[in-house]
Amino acid sequence: MNFLAHIYLSGEDPELKIGNFIADSVKGKKFLDYPKRISQGITLHRKIDSYTDSHEIVKKSVSRLFPKYRHYSTVIVDILYDHFLAANWTTYSDIPLEEYTLDFYRLLHQNHHILPKPVQTLLPYMEQDNWLLSYASISGIGNVLSGMNRRTKNKSKMNFAVVELEQYYTDFGTEFQTFFEDVERFTKNEMRKL
Question: Given this model, what pLDDT does residue 1 score?
Answer without folding.
Answer: 74
